[in-house]
Amino acid sequence: LSMETKMECQKYGAVRSCYIHVVNMRKFPRCPPNEQVRTFVYFERQDAAVKACKELNGRFFGGRQISASFFDEDKFFKEQFEPEEGEF
Questions:
Q1: Which of 4, 7, 25, 48 lies at a 20 to 30 A Cα distance from 18?
Q2: pTM for the full predicted model
Q3: Nearest residue to 20 via CA among 44, 4, 31, 43
Q4: Cα 20–Cα 36–Cα 32 angle in degrees, nearest 5
Q5: Contact status, residue 58 vs residue 66, Cβ threshold 8 Å
Q6: In terms of C-beta density within 10 A (0-12 exposed, 13-18 middle, 19 or more buried), how is residue 65 classed?
Q7: DSSP letter, residue 60
Q8: How far is 34 from 65, CA to CA, in rounded Å?
Q9: Partners of 67 in the beta sheet?
Q10: Which long-range contacts (C-beta less than 8 Å, at least 24 apart) are formed by 6-9?
């Protein structure tokens, strides 16, 4: 699924990496179904990321509706993909 996502996102610009993270439900039992799988796409250029975010938000992919937003780069590079305490 990561490769499919990367290929789809390359329509908007060069993609450096794509990572799919499944939330630890033991740690976050209140995590709603639409937040249990998080996909992170790192683009080469910011304008590509902006375009992808606008185009993909609300669209369906793999049977799920996408909620696209930007993510803190420091957390991304530290691989802190889990939700924050109290987020749900």
A1: 25
A2: 0.87
A3: 4
A4: 160
A5: yes
A6: exposed
A7: E
A8: 8
A9: none
A10: 6/41, 8/61, 9/41, 9/43, 9/52, 9/56
The residues with which 15 forms a beta bridge, in sequence order, are 43
- Residue 11 in 3-state DSSP? coil
* Token pair listed for 87: 């987020």
Cα angle 76, 44, 5; round to 5: 70
Which residue do the tokens 């590079």 mark? Answer: 77
Contacts of 86 (CB under 8 A, 6+ apart): none
Which two tokens mark 69?
Answer: 């937003």
User: Do you know the residue count of the chain?
Assistant: 88
Token representation of residue 6: 């990367």
